[in-house]
Specification:
94 residues, mainly alpha, 3 helices, elongated
């Protein structure tokens, strides 16, 4: 069984991420409401695009932090298998 990994985040970092997630959640709720109101497809697609950009932006922030903290620490410890993790992460974000 693989050992579960953890990342320490400051309360400030957690709050910033939580705020972004709350905005994304609000956007998704807005889209659900638009569907209930039979809004025009183009309007819904525009909002879906905004959600997509918001999610990708948050993912980039977390990925960047991951590279500078978790990955760098493991690399410094000589854990070269971390390179495979980085390659897999970039495949997922293509």
């Amino acid at each position: 069984m693989e050992q579960r990994k953890y990342t320490y985040r400051t309360s400030n970092d957690k709050k910033k991420i939580e705020n972004r997630l709350n905005r994304i959640e609000g956007q998704v709720k807005g889209i659900k409401k638009m569907l209930e109101e039979d809004r025009y497809c183009d309007d819904i697609l525009i909002q879906l695009s905004a959600v997509d950009k918001s999610v990708k932006s948050l993912a980039r922030v977390i990925l960047e932090n991951h590279m500078y903290t978790c990955i760098a620490e493991r690399f410094e410890k000589g854990e070269l298998d971390v390179i495979d993790e980085v390659v897999e992460l970039f495949r997922r974000f293509e």
